[in-house]
Amino acid sequence: MTKYDNIIAIDPDVDKSGVALLKPATRQLEVTSLSFPQLLDYLKYVKKEHDKTGETVIVLVEAGWLNKSNWHLRDGDTKRIAGAKGNSTGRNHEVGRKIIECAAHYGIDVREQIPLRKCWKGKDGKITANELASFTGLTGKTNQEGRDAALIAWVYADLPIKIKPINQ
C-alpha cells in the first residue's frame, strides 16, 4: 500500500457526512461532519494546500453500494417503511458517488472503500466513542458518521487497534 501523508475518510450522508483527517506519521486525527457544499469546499481547500506543501493525500469514501447486499429490513417492516429505507439508502449512496466524482474532478486521489465489518459494541455493531478513543486518543463529541470515517482512515493507515472488537 502506498503511504500517504494525509488520509481523508468520508462516511457519506445526505444531511452531513462524517469526515476524518488522519496524519499517519503523527497519528493526528481530526473528525467533523460537513454538509455536501461544505465538504466540496473542504476538498478544494485540501487540494490547494497540499499542492502548495507537496504532501500527499488520499480520499477514501465509504461505498456501501459495493456490499453484496444492502437490505436494511427488519421483521414487521411495512412496504412503506421498506420503500423509505431503500430511498434513504439510495440517496446516501448517490452522495458518496458524487463526492468521488467531485474529488476526482479536483485532481485528488480518491478511492471507493468497502464498508468495514460491523463488529463493535455500539448499535448494529457500530463503533462507540469510547472504543474509538481507546486506540486513537480522540476525545470530544463525535457522531456515528464521524467515528465510522475515523475508523476507515485508521484501518487504511494500518495503525494498531489496541482493543479487540467483539465477534472476532
Task: Fill in the keyword field for this structure.
single chain, 168 residues, alpha/beta, Nucleotidyltransferase, domain 5, five-stranded mixed beta sheet, globular
Describe the structure.
- The protein is an alpha/beta fold.
- It has one domain (6-156): Nucleotidyltransferase, domain 5 (2-Layer Sandwich).
- The chain contains four helices and five strands; from the N terminus they run βββαβαβαα.
- The chain has a five-stranded mixed beta sheet with strand order 3-2-1-4-5, sandwiched between helices.
- It is globular, with a radius of gyration of 16 Å.
- The mean pLDDT is 86.
Low-confidence stretches: none
Q: CATH topology, what is it called?
A: Nucleotidyltransferase, domain 5
Number of domains: 1
Which band does the percent of strand residues land in?
15-25%
Q: Can you identify the CATH class? A: Alpha Beta
Q: Major sheet: order of its strands?
A: 3-2-1-4-5
Distance between the termini: 24 Å
